[in-house]
């Protein structure tokens, strides 16, 4: 097991090294406390700081802690944990290879095996889609779309890129962001794993600790955050129609109103938002929103699930995340969980900032 494998345990060669060493995971989790502890540290640090923590001084422990961490994440099997963990592994690897690539030749350790952009591209089957040019990279549009769609920021939108002969030009640091996404996909692949009892039974204490940490973080809190950039495609489309003053069918109006109510908007805020639409009389809208939130009725309504949205024709512009969820709120929660703190600028606070 090489130091390179300990630094980048998601590599195919790292997996092969573990297989070649004939490691029995049952024995590892039963007898190697250092591996269990480092695996737990990987997962907890992922929740706390979005990274996987400082490496263990022994390469074997560091490398084996990766499959054990994936087992822990699988045993908990919470969407938010899986996403945060995969993201943290990818972010840590990204920081490591970015630092390695910028080290000067003198600083590079002579006996440390290094990764190169070329080997990373080959690892993730991206070689064909990426061509090195004089001082940048030309990336085939299919490769770009496969890895850039999760990135936020206007600069990643295809419409803001120059497309030439089916290729997009990227700087080295932008290409490394695409590779980070490929790593995240690799870590996420196959999760949750099906974990045999013989392994799970030795990880009860670690699982308990992670569950407590998850509860402390209160990641499943009620949503009270309005960030339209993170809305599911269906709600973005409905909001767009509202703001253009277009007529909405009753079911569509119900869907967007319940969604906005559930994510924390007050009746006044929703009424104000809808006022631009000639189809919405203020009184009727106020009554409907109060009714939806249970103020003037015994029932507090929730937005419809994806299956209902589909049957009414309100499910539009589906993206990759849509394939993994069954409710627009789950989509929004996943996006919020995934976003960096600084990206979460509440619409209502932004308006206040603009006015001050
Ligand atoms: S799949 Fe669900 S979240 Fe995605 S657009 Fe359709 S209704 Fe909205």
Short description:
Pfam families: DNA_primase_lrg, DNA_primase_lrg_N. With 356 residues, the chain is mainly alpha-helical.
Folded structure, characterized:
The structure is a single chain. This protein is mostly helical. 56% of the residues lie in helices and 4% in strands. The protein contains 18 helices and four strands. It has a four-stranded antiparallel sheet. The protein is globular. The termini are far apart. Iron/sulfur cluster binds at residues 232-234, 306, 309, 315, 318, 322, 328, 331.
Q: Which CATH architecture of the largest domain?
A: Up-down Bundle
Structure classification = mainly alpha
CATH fold name of the largest domain: Transcription Elongation Factor S-II, Chain A
Radius of gyration of CA atoms, rounded to a whole number: 24 Å
Strand segment count = 4
Tell me the overall shape.
Answer: globular
Features:
single chain, 356 residues, mainly alpha, Transcription Elongation Factor S-II, Chain A, 2 domains, 4-stranded antiparallel β-sheet, 18 helices, 4 strands, 56% helix, binds iron/sulfur cluster, metal ion binding, DNA replication, DNA_primase_C, 4 iron, 4 sulfur cluster binding
Task: Outline the secondary-structure elements.
Blueprint: H1 3-7, H2 12-20, H3 25-31, H4 33-49, H5 59-76, H6 79-102, H7 117-123, E1 130-132, E2 137-140, H8 141-148, E3 163-164, E4 167-170, H9 172-188, H10 197-200, H11 204-217, H12 233-243, H13 250-262, H14 267-274, H15 282-292, H16 306-311, H17 328-338, H18 347-355
Antiparallel strand pairs: 1-2, 2-4, 3-4
Helix pairs in contact: 4-5, 4-6, 4-11, 5-11, 6-9, 14-15
This protein binds iron/sulfur cluster.
GO cellular component, one term: primosome complex
Protein name: DNA primase large subunit PriL
Pfam family, one: DNA_primase_lrg
């Amino acid at each position: 097991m090489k130091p390179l494998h300990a630094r980048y345990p998601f590599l195919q060669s790292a997996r092969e090294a573990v297989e070649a060493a004939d490691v029995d995971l049952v024995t590892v989790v039963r007898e190697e406390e250092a591996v269990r502890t480092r695996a737990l540290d990987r997962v907890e640090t992922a929740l706390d700081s979005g990274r996987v923590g400082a490496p263990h001084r022994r390469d074997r422990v560091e490398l084996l802690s990766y499959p054990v961490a994936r087992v822990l994440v699988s045993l908990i099997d919470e969407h938010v944990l899986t996403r945060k963990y995969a993201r943290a592994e990818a972010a840590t690897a990204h920081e490591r290879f970015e630092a390695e690539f910028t080290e000067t030749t003198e600083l590079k350790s002579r006996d440390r095996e290094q990764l190169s952009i070329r080997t990373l591209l080959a690892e993730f089957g991206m070689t064909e889609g990426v061509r090195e040019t004089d001082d940048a990279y030309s990336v085939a549009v299919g490769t770009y779309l496969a890895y850039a769609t999760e990135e936020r920021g206007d600069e990643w939108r295809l419409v803001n890129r120059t497309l030439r002969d089916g290729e997009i030009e990227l700087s080295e640091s932008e290409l490394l962001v695409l590779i980070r996404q490929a790593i995240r996909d690799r870590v996420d692949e196959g999760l949750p794993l099906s974990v045999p009892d013989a392994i799970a039974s030795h990880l009860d204490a670690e699982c308990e600790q992670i569950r407590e940490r998850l509860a402390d973080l209160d990641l499943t809190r009620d949503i009270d955050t309005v960030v339209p950039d993170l809305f599911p495609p269906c709600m973005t489309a409905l909001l767009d129609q509202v703001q253009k003053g277009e007529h909405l069918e009753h079911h569509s109006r119900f869907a967007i109103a319940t969604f906005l109510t559930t994510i924390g908007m007050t009746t006044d805020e929703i009424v104000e938002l809808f006022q631009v639409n000639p189809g919405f009389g203020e009184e009727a809208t106020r009554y409907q929103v109060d009714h939806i939130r249970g103020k003037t009725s015994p029932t507090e309504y929730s937005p419809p699930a994806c299956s209902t949205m589909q049957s009414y024709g309100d499910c539009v512009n589906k993206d990759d995340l849509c394939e993994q969820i069954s409710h627009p709120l789950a989509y929004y929660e996943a996006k919020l969980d995934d976003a960096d703190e600084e990206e979460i600028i509440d619409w209502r606070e932004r308006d206040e900032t603009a006015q001050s």
